[in-house]
Amino acid sequence: MVSNLTQSCAIIHSLTLPSTPQSAIDLIKSDTKVKVFQKGEFVLISEQEVQFVFGINSGMAKFYFMDHFGNEFTIKILKAGDVFGYRHIIENELFSGYMQIIETAEVCSMSKNVFLKLLEEEITVNRRLIDNLCGDIRTAKETIANLSLKDVKHRICSILIKLHKQFSMPGSDDINVDLSREDFAKLVGVARESLSRSLSELANEKIIFLDKKRIKVLDWIKLHQFSKI
Predict the structure, then answer these.
(1) CB–CB of 126/119 below 8 Å?
(2) The domain at 148-227 falls in which architecture?
(3) Euclidean distance between CA atoms 48 and 28, whole angstroms
(4) What is the pLDDT of residues 7-23, one digit of tens each?
(5) CA–CA gap between residue 154 and residue 132 (Å, rounded)
(6) Where are the alpha helices (DSSP H) in 92-219?
(7) Is residue 120 over pLDDT 70?
C-alpha cells in the first residue's frame, strides 16, 4: 500500500536540521512516498540497484548478510527514524546484504535524483549525512570488535547495552525491543541454542532477568564490565 507523505517522515527528521531552508524540506515532501511493509517483506535485496533513500517512520527492520550456506549475520536493527540506502547511491553501487522487515513498518522513500540534488545544493543535508555516515562506521567497528574479540556471553552484554540505548525509555531497566530469540541470535552471530545457554548463565549470575521474550537488566555495573572484556 502506497500513500502520500505523512507529517512524520524519517527522511526529513534524519537528513535535515532546524536551519534547513523550507524550500529543501518542501522538495523532500513533494518527492517522498510512503509504503507499509508487512513482517518478512524485503525493502532491498542483495545486488539490487538502489534508486531511493529509505526511512522508517514506524516498525523495525534488520540489515543482514548471508553466506554461501544460507546462514544469516545480522549487522544492525533499524527502528523508527533510521534511514538507509544513501551510501549506495553516493557510491553508485548495488545494495550489499538484505533489508527485511521484522515488525510491520511504514517506510518512506525519496528518489535518487532528488537526494543527489539536495547534496549538491544544501549544506545542512550534507552535515546530517556526515553524522549518519559516522554512525554507520561506529556500528561497523563495534560489530567487527564483537565478532573478533569477544566470546558469546560478552557479545550478548554489548548488544544488550546497545539495544537498551536504541529502544528503551530513559530510566527503564527493560530491554524494550520485540526481537525474537532467532533474530537476537543472528544479531549476536551464534546459534539459537548458544544464545539461550549464555542468556541463562547471565540470568543465573543475577545480571539479567528473563521472562519469555522479556529481558530486564538487574546489574548494570556487571553488564558493562562484561561488555568490555
Answers:
(1) yes
(2) Orthogonal Bundle (1.10)
(3) 23
(4) 479 999 999 999 999 99
(5) 27
(6) 112-121, 123-149, 152-167, 181-188, 192-204
(7) yes
- Cβ neighbours for 223, distance < 8 A, ≥ 6 positions apart: 157, 160, 161, 207, 208, 217
Q: Grid cell 513482517 — which residue?
A: 39
Lookup: cell for 21: 531552508
Domain chopping of the chain, boundaries:
2-124, 148-227
Name the CATH topology of 2-124. Jelly Rolls (2.60.120)
The pTM of this model reads 0.81
Length of the chain: 229
Strand, helix or coil at 117?
A: helix
Longest CA span, the chain: 57
- Dihedral sign, Cα of residue 17, residue 20, residue 22, residue 27: negative
Structural contact between residues 130 and 137, judged by C-beta atoms closer than 8 angstroms: no
**Smallest Cα–Cα separation from 102: which of 168, 181, 157?**
181
- What does the mean pLDDT of the chain come to? 90
Buried b (16+ CB within 10 A) or exposed e, 191-220: eeeebeebbeebbeeebbeeeeeebebeee
Place of cell 545486488: 47
